[in-house]
Every structure is written in structure tokens, then in C-alpha cells.
Records
---
Amino acid sequence: CADVSLDLKKLTVERAGRPVKMPPKCLHLLRLLMQTPGRVIGHAELEAEVWGEALPDSDTLRAHIYTLRRALTAQGERDPIETVHGLGYRFVA
């Protein structure tokens, strides 16, 4: 999507050709968001997909999204993840 690429076989991410390192949960979140660019994915759906039955507290998802955003914008790039207040997040290509 746009200048972000995710290799699911190697579990690697690149942004504009540079490698981006991130924790496994962030990779999972990125995969979910990139599967349907533009679609708002709710907090509950993201938490269920990433953490399953062991749902985290509300700050855990927010902290992982923050880490994901920092990794993707480390070189001053535009943030491809948009917060839709009260609903969830979406990947903007």
C-alpha cells in the first residue's frame, strides 16, 4: 500500500525502500490495517484479532499503534494510520 510494503513470508516491513523494524504485535496490526486500506477497523476487532481471548486493557492497543506509527514515520514520512475517534483506525494509502 502506497510506499509501505509488508512481506508476510519473511515478516519484514519496508517504507520507501528502507527496512522498518517493529515488534510482532505491531506487524500483526499493520497486516490487519493493510488488508483493507481505507476501512475503519474497530478497537474491539483489532484487539480480538491480535490478542484473541486474552484481551488487553484499553491502553495496550493504543501503545502498540503508537509504536507502529513511530516505526513507520521514523524518517519524517506521513503517518499512514488514521485514527477515527470513537471507532478505530484505518490505513490510508
---
Amino acid sequence: PQDIGSAFPDRLRAALGGGPVAAFQLRVKGVDQHELARLAEPLQRICADAEVAFIVNDSITMARRLGAD
């Protein structure tokens, strides 16, 4: 979803707990890179805790900044 703030981290955690997941792709358009990095950090931690690859779509710069898989 475009809104990855608010309740999305809890929804992601629940989804990853529902069965095997190989990867999560962060793909959000029209958000400032600093804001996107702030929003992505908790999602990346959730993925790491679940041993799910965290992939950033369309931005090598953001992928490197976050240390994405």
C-alpha cells in the first residue's frame, strides 16, 4: 500500500507470521527520501526479525542507504 505508516507495520508483522515469505519489496512513490527512510526502518527490522529479505524498488540510493538485501 502507499501508506506504510500508521498500522502498516503491525499488518506486515501479522502477514509475515502467516507462513513462509521470501521477500518484502518496499515500493512507495512520491515520498521524500528522508521520510521514506524513516518509514522504512521499522519495516526493515520486522523483515530482519522474520528472516525475510528486504528489497527496495526503483532506488539504488535508498537501497544502499538502508542496507537493503
---
Amino acid sequence: MLNPLYNDTDGPSLAFLADLLAQPFCRAWCLLREHHPVAVVWYQCHSDCAEVIDLRVRENERRAGVATRLLRASFDALDGVDKVNLEVRAGNTAARALYERMGFQTVGHRADYYATNQGREDALLMSMLLPVTR
């Protein structure tokens, strides 16, 4: 069902993410339009903290607020979670802008974390506290 959103060469494979759902600490939400997936987000949850493992938006749906709507809805559904963490490629300016608009702040980085065709790329670590009333 999610195959149009997933290219196994771009981030975690669909098989890896599907296997996570068998774990009691993993959560995922999918945004559908006319019964077709347009975006999906995967989390690992640990006590009062959640980590975004992957966020995908169908290419023709990007920059239309889809990711924002999905993230906000998933934040509301993350019962007992006060903080959300993620990592993002330093060069992924569109994702970084989205996360900053959502309230994430850069709290660290991992040098040369991601392999690229040109060598290595840093990962930025971002975090945000969720509002008390959601």
C-alpha cells in the first residue's frame, strides 16, 4: 500500500519500517487522500519521548502542508509524549525548514553520518517539546 512513497535507496526500507510495527514501542500514521497514501510518519516511543524515524510525502503532494498536517495530528495522538526528537540531513533544506516551522530546534549534529554519492553528509539532531495542552 505504501510503495508509491517508498524508494528503498532513500532512507529506511519499507520492509524495515513495517518490521518496526511489530515492536510495542513503534507507532505510525498515514494520511490518505481518496484511499491512497500521500504521507506517512513513523516513530519510536520511549516513555515520554518519541523519535521520528521516517517521514515521507508523495512527491506531487510536497510543499502543500501535508507533512505539517500529518505531524500535528500525530503529535496529538502521541499519548504521554512530551518531547519529539529527529535527525535530518544537513543538506535537506526543505525538511529543515518544515521542522523549524513546527518548533523543532537544532540541538546537535553527527559529522559525516550519511553516505552520499559525493562522500559524506552531516546529520542534524533536532528536538521540540510538545505543548502541555494538545
